[in-house]
Specification:
The complex is a heterodimer. Chain A is an alpha/beta fold. Helix content of chain A is 37%, strand content 27%.
């Protein structure tokens, strides 16, 4: 489908990936390739396997890969631990960011950032230097400094949680970011902040996968490709106008595609 | 799932302090009877009142039976198979540290408690207790300038018998419980602290208890007296070698705070816990109690309990003085087959007294971790308040946690508040931290220290860092 000739090597290649949890098959042969600078959107009904795909790429141990490969910068990462994937530049923005009581957000962000910096052979930051860095990144998501002294995601509103995810993305500077329904539950202002944050962080070297139900995020960030998933498979891929069509016609319209493939 | 085995691997860090010091010791024969008690008293050249105190306690102990209400499972202790006095052989009178056997100094060096003039810890005065005797106390002259007495209890018996006679056994009477009675009969050494009126102790005081021999018990006795408007922060640390037999440790600690005085007592307990099969380890049966005798006096207990095969310990406060304050902050971590039954008693007697209890229990492996506490409001405790919070964290699916809060109120004009929670480190939380580049073990210890933060905040600085590290070490390999 991606017939265009690419000048550089792909960041992420998902090849015929099948996966299950508790012996229940969730993904049934998914293929997807992301090149530097590309934005991909994945849409589809709840339960179609979108979130599973993102978690498997990030290394969630509750899923088993039964067939196929995930390659990151040309290397097979099927058996890498989640922390190794993160350190090497894969970022997953959670649909439901997890609360960690008692652990300060600042310390969490610092340890996380240093793990990535260590991998990149960059100097690890002490509390003071990190404060400087994080101050600059807080601007991107328009977050208040007070967020840093609270426990990770604890008592955060839905919008605050999502912005905290984007803050982490800004600090980790990943090669590829998979954002799982980062737009859901956001009001219009928060959506703009999140969208502009994503745009500021991404560049010609990064790849982005947006998992979403809504056109409104794609109005802010125009994707190069739109994939429609159903029942653990990508059933249609198109350009950004596919999302518009989908928005008009609903997922029922895509039910016919299954018969086509 | 993959993580479960990993979690089980995280608590397997070998015990760092398990070495034995090879040193000639003077031990008396095994067993317990009046003659043994007389022998201990004679060796310590004690005044008659103390021998009488011991013998009376022994008589009481003989009539008592071992408590079983905590439901702890262990083989019956044979009290005739224990050596009640064991001391490293030294010159009769040691006038300076230079005369202490270098092997002993080396032992404490290895434990991170250097005693020699050049290396001793700055700003913390240390009393080092090895088996049954105190080896050395640092910074004595400096403390004496402020009128602070800090020495072994044996020395205090010789040099300050009036204080000992006045206060010993007034907070924990010999008849209080089985192990307190045993301690009162046979206690060998321990620390003594006296802070005179109006003095803020210029440095932290610390006792370090080391059990070295495998067949003798340790029965130390600590007495701290804070006179009017004085204050002191006292730290206690403990380790023991790894033996495949169980060693009995039955200590008694008594604190007394007069008007406007405050005592902060912090413990990091890391006795040998036994191996993965539950072989060996210390039986830690301890009675700790503080008496807020004076108005507006304050006693604060903080403890980090990580060691011992069995811990049976309830540091408590008797709040007599009007507006006196009692606090208990506790972290108890158990792993493998360890059992811990710990908590506190806050007995509100005077009016407008206040107490706070924060307890954090973490159980991993097949361990059993219980909080047991009593809050009592007496008839005169009008306008008194208590707040208790007991949280448990489970690691893995074989560990157990229990909370037994007892509340008795005879005073309608008082408030008691109790909160409890239980949580488990979830796979979701672990994955979230890991997906941010944080290694599995670090993720676990981050969550554990996050869980304990309320308590760690109460510990003196150096102790908090040590406690954090200790917990991380203990958990290494136990989580996954």
């Amino acid at each position: 489908m991606q017939s265009k000739m690419k000048e550089s090597d792909p960041i992420l290649e998902v090849e015929n990936l099948s996966a299950s949890t508790d012996n229940l098959p969730i993904l049934k042969g998914v293929s997807l390739t992301v090149y530097p600078g590309e934005i991909h959107a994945i849409m589809g009904r709840n339960g179609c396997g979108k979130s599973t795909l993102s978690k498997i790429i990030a290394g969630d141990p509750s899923y088993n890969i039964t067939k196929g490969d995930i390659k990151f910068l040309g290397e097979n990462i099927n058996s890498l631990e989640p922390e190794e994937r993160s350190q090497s530049g894969i970022f997953l923005g959670f649909q439901y960011p997890i609360e960690i009581p008692g652990v300060s957000n600042l310390e969490f962000l610092r340890v996380s950032t240093n793990a990535r910096r260590k991998f990149l052979n960059k100097e690890e930051l002490d509390t003071f230097d990190f404060e400087e860095l994080v101050k600059e990144k807080l601007e991107i998501v328009k977050m208040d400094h007070a967020f840093l002294s609270r426990s990770v995601n604890q008592g955060f509103s839905g919008g605050e949680k999502k912005r905290n995810e984007i803050l982490q993305m800004a600090l980790l500077e990943p090669k590829i970011a998979i954002l799982d329904e980062t737009d859901s539950g956001l009001d219009i202002d928060a959506l703009r902040i999140v969208a502009s944050g994503i745009k500021k962080i991404s560049n010609a070297q990064t790849g982005i996968i947006l998992i979403t139900h809504y056109q409104r995020l794609l109005d802010e960030i125009k994707p190069n490709y739109v994939h429609v998933m159903s029942n653990g498979q990508i059933i249609k891929t198109g350009e950004s106008d596919l999302a518009l069509e989908l928005d008009k016609k609903g997922y029922e319209w895509t039910d016919n595609f299954i018969k086509e493939t | 799932m993959g993580n479960e085995n990993l979690v089980k691997d995280v608590v397997k860090e070998p015990y760092k302090y398990g070495f034995v010091t090879d040193i000639e010791t003077e031990k008396i024969e095994k067993g317990l009877n009046e003659d043994i008690i007389k022998l201990i008293s004679q060796k310590k050249e004690e005044p008659k009142f103390l021998l009488d105190f011991r013998l009376k306690a022994f008589k009481k102990w003989q009539r008592m039976s071992e408590p079983d209400w905590a439901g702890l499972g262990y083989k019956k202790i044979d009290y005739q198979d224990i050596i009640y006095y064991s001391a490293p052989k030294q010159k009769d009178k040691i006038s300076s540290l230079d005369e202490v056997d270098p092997k002993l100094l080396e032992t404490f060096d290895k434990l991170g408690i250097p005693l020699t003039e050049q290396k001793k810890l700055t700003n913390v005065a240390v009393d080092a207790v090895f088996d049954s005797v105190s080896i050395a106390t640092t910074f004595r002259e400096e403390l004496a300038e402020h009128g602070v007495i800090f020495c072994s209890i044996s020395e205090a018996v010789k040099n300050h018998p009036d204080l000992i006679e006045k206060y010993l056994g007034t907070v924990v009477p010999a008849s209080d419980n089985y192990f307190a009675a045993l301690n009162s009969a046979v206690f060998s050494d321990g620390s003594f602290v006296y802070i005179p009126k109006g003095v803020t102790c210029p440095m932290d005081l610390s006792s370090y208890f080391r059990i070295n021999s495998g067949d003798s018990g340790q029965f130390e006795r600590t007495l701290i007296i804070a006179e009017e408007s004085s204050s002191v922060s006292y730290l206690e640390g403990c380790t023991a070698p790894m033996f495949d037999t169980n060693t009995l440790h039955a200590a008694v600690v008594e604190l007394i705070a007069l008007d406007d005085a405050s005592i902060k007592y912090s413990t990091v307990q890391n006795w040998y816990a036994g191996d993965e099969e539950g072989i060996g380890g210390i039986f830690n049966f301890v009675t700790k109690r503080g008496k807020c005798l004076g108005k507006r006096s304050k006693i604060s207990w903080s403890q980090v309990e990580t060691g011992s095969a069995i811990t049976w310990k309830y540091p408590s406060c008797l709040l007599l003085g009007e507006e006196s304050v009692g606090e208990f902050y506790s972290v108890a971590l158990t792993n493998n087959l360890q059992q811990a039954d710990t908590g506190t008693k806050m007995i509100h007697i005077g009016p407008k007294t206040k107490s706070t209890i924060i307890s954090k229990g973490i159980s991993a492996g097949n361990s059993k971790n219980s909080y047991r506490g009593l809050v009592k409001m007496g008839t005169k405790a009008t306008g008194s308040r208590n707040y208790s919070q007991c949280d448990s964290m489970l690691i893995g699916d074989q560990a157990s946690a229990n909370t037994f809060p007892y509340i008795k109120s005879q005073q309608p004009n008082s408030e008691i508040e109790h909160e409890a929670s239980t949580c488990r480190i979830s796979e979701d939380q672990l994955f979230y931290l890991q997906s941010r580049g944080i290694e599995f073990e670090e993720a676990v210890s981050m969550m554990v220290s996050g869980f304990c933060r309320d308590v760690f905040n109460q510990l003196p600085m150096e102790f908090a860092a040590e406690a954090d590290k200790l917990l991380a070490l203990k958990l290494e390999g136990s989580v996954g």
